[in-house]
Amino acid sequence: MRIHADLHSHSHYSADGISTPESMIAVAKRKGLQALAITDHNNSRSVDYLLEQGLMREDGCPVNDFLLVPGIEVTTAEGHLLCLGARFPNDLKGAPAREVCDLAHQLGALAVPPHPFDRFRSGIRGEVLQSLPIDALEVFNAATTLDRHNRQAWHYAQAHRLGMLASSDAHHSSAVGTAYSILEVESLTLSEVLRSIPSNCEIVRRYLTLKDSVRKTAANLRRLLPFHRLP
User: What does the DSSP 8-state code read for residue 195?
Assistant: First the structure.
């Protein structure tokens, strides 16, 4: 079976996120997605919350025919790194990218650099990227600074025979599912999604609308306010 999955998004548990996990799930379902990863910056609070609310299962099975993939976006010493498939500690910020990759694999998860080559958004690139034991590459990010950064990522994945993902990088629920990956799985389960990612090459590419881009920029500015606090 083929499923549509957006595997890079942010809730209000990210300092620059706005929306609740529930609103993000609602939009994902409305847009026809079957799986979503809320990969907040440097923390797994959304995973804890989703488990507490019964929206995510420890056994990796879907809830009401919708699968939530646990994950995190870590700000490593060399740039941002998505880790998909497990709950991660909240103290990884600044750790070497190689150590975070190794931890992901120890936990049975995947390491996927998002928006690589985007120097304006801490993308991992160059010799560092080549040295990492990554499982796939985000080759299309709906919020990337320049289109050529996505093209560079696609060519890199092609040259290194890496699985390819497209993601919304949504920081507001309305942007969820702007871009997404089409995965071939035998069942709608976490294990099947993780199995399919390293060989995936089918994606849907769309950029954020102007409205969603403005919302994302406003959220980035909002996190700099002295009174801003995470939930």
Answer: H
* DSSP string for residues in 144-174: -S-HHHHHHHHHHHHHHT-EEEEE--BSSGG
- In 53-177, where does DSSP find H-type helix? 97-106, 126-131, 147-160
- Residue 130 makes CB contacts below 8 A (sequence gap 6+) with none
pLDDT band at 33 (very low <50, low <70, confident <90, very high): very high
Instruction: Name every residue whose Cβ is closer than 8 Å to that of residue 150 and which is 6 or more positions away in sequence.
Output: 139, 140, 141, 144, 205
pTM for the complete prediction? 0.92
Residue 227 lies in a domain: no
Is the residue at 214 inside a domain? yes
d(CA 127, CA 100): 17
Alpha-carbon gap, residue 32 to 177, rounded angstroms: 8
Contact predicate 61/185, CB 8 Å? no
Region of poorest pLDDT, from 1-5, 57-61, 93-97, 118-122: 118-122
**CATH number of the domain within which 139 lies:** 3.20.20.140
Tokens of 217: 């920029």
pLDDT at 231: 64
pLDDT band for position 220 (50/70/90)? low
Domain that holds residue 203: 2-222
Domain count for the chain, please give it.
1
Phi, psi of 86 (to 5 degrees): -155, 170
Residue with tokens 């919350």: 49
Q: What share of the chain is helix, strand, coil (3-state, %, to 5)?
A: 35, 20, 45
